[in-house]
Amino acid sequence: MGELPAATAVRTTWAELPLRVQEGVEDRLGAAALRAASQGGGFTNGVAARLTLADGGRAFVKALPDDHELAPDYRAEVRIAGALPTAVPASRLRFSLDSAGWIVLVYDDVEGRHPDFARPRDLAAVLTCVEDLATVLTPNPLAWAPDITEPLGPLLRGWRRFLDEGPTARLDAWSVRNLGRLAELESRWVRATAGDTLLHADLRHDNMLVTSQGTALTVDWAWACVGADWVELVYLLPSVAAAGGDPEAVVSSHPVTRKADPAAIDAFVCALAGFYTHSGRQPDPYWSPHIRTHERWYGRLCRDWLARRTGWA
Questions:
Q1: How far apart are CA 152 and CA 194, in angstroms?
Q2: Residue 154, pLDDT above cutoff 90
Q3: Residues 88 and 119 in one domain
Q4: Which domain holds residue 184?
Q5: 101 and 202, same structural domain?
Q6: Across the chain, what does the average pLDDT equal?
Q7: Where a domain ends, among 61, 91, 107?
Q8: Which of 8, 187, 267, 296 is deepest in the core (most CB within 10 A)?
């Protein structure tokens, strides 16, 4: 399967926002926006734009209609991003607005780019960032943050869904042969991922930035929840595999996974494989024409990784 296009999102532009929304943002920033550069990463159709301001300042704006099916994620991000400890390697939320039927989040603009995991320096920066997240966010600093089962529980049951639906026409031969034990292993992920670390829980290359100083930071904290510290890295590793990297080499060497129970990692990789495989076979959502391609690709990567870990033929 080929790589995704460089721009995976079909974005609403800053200029397409209602004038009232634009003026509300500019009033809070204290300067007019002279230029707005839309960003093509991610998978939603909301606004994601870097603003250059009349006073020479910059800001990053993301916005989504308040009746969009992903609007609850944006509201969750407002709450989480505004409460993160300052030591967390993350872009900083300046303010949020509800205006003219839009939810708007305004962040400090970061001079950087998404990491390329085929570049050793980028990968090293990201792995350091993951280690820093585990250090800073253990124990969980936000008492009201949900347990990992709340956001991920409805998603990580793809193999069980295949078993219930009857899968054979929609599954590869390896998955069909092993479906029963895939569903059984998947069922262990809840107990396997219990912990006391606040997790980003959606780390991918497009949810991270490498700064001009060469350090990595995180963006888009909509899915934050509490679980085992190693979950963060294992969730990220399909993105490393997509760039040609070996996830097992990272697991065996990184501080957060070296101490983890291999059986627990197996269960979570299995659950990820089931999610991506099942979701990738659903119809394309109107707001993201490329997300199913991404999910099918990551499903294959996770199945290959799991087959290596388990030795299942």
A1: 12
A2: yes
A3: no
A4: 112-310
A5: no
A6: 94
A7: 107
A8: 267
